[in-house]
Amino acid sequence: MRDISLQLLAWYDANAREMPWRVPPNARQNGTLPDPYAVWMSEVMLQQTTVAAVREYHNKFMALWPSVHDMAAADDADVMAAWAGLGYYARARNLLKCARAVVADHGGVFPADYAVLLTLPGIGPYTAAAIASIAFDLPETVVDGNVERVMARLFDIHDPLPKSKPVLTARAKQLTPDTRPGDYAQAVMDLGATICTPRNPSCGACPWQQPCAANAAGTAAELPKKTPKKKTPTRHGIAYVVQRADGALLLETRPASGLLGGMLGWPGSEWGDAPEPAPPLDANWQTLNEQARHTFTHFHLRLTVMVAKVDARAQARRGSFVAAPDFDAGALPTAMRKVFDIAAPTLRNT
DNA sequence: CATTCGTGGTT
DNA sequence: TAACCAAGAAT
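The joint structure predicted for all components is written out below.
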């Protein structure tokens, strides 16, 4: 059984993808391991996020906060602003919590232990196994979407996810070798990302073509099965963009938990079927023709954009004015940035 | 155990 | 255009 793991490692030696946070297989076999901080940063960013999207964010974060001590001492608003656009903002909040826990409780050193890693904020079963194996070369088994798909095909398992996850996890553990577990973890995920893809898998180029049960049965492309999900509803809301005579814009920091938690945004109504107007101040509001459309994981959002210009003495019922030189649309989550993009021409022309 | 939580690319 | 998908975690 284990010899097929070695086959995969041989494939990885020749086909490993290059990533800024990764130590290539030849260097790893010479005894070089990656910086656990960089690995942790990458794995948190990679949760439900593509490698392509993570690259520049990882570079930026490593430049701004090169060590876990820097991250622990970082200003929360700076980290949230730097994370803007990457999504799943609870990850950024947990990034700070985790860094501070590592410094406060673990002497500023990431623990080389799966069970201890699992106790840290934002580190679940996948990420704990990824850090343990990739950063410390411990024989832990990563089970992400790639591994689930590869195992479902390798063993021709037709039970739908997520119910089948325990079986897929057990299979993945059976295959994890004692030698080079870190490279092996990265190898299975690379295989899933480049060969054993969700659609149109390149079975002809797969190092596991021979042992693959789904390839033999001709079922690879239809695996893994998944329980169908319900369709996403549409919610509506109103976003208010206020500009003061000196150019300052009215923004508010959203509540620390929930959707876009801790992020900067425009004051607005609740989001639902028929939102009640909730202007942050009394003004001569102008409703723009174009709505901001944005899709979250579980609903579509259509925001009506309302714009007002107010004088320098204006007082808002909520939010706070941000001076024009301090405003950075890049610090907004995408839904809010779309609102700004729609409002910007009107702001300039009035 | 089901739901909540982003975003951009692909089909 | 709508659905699907990506190195999941927290509740």
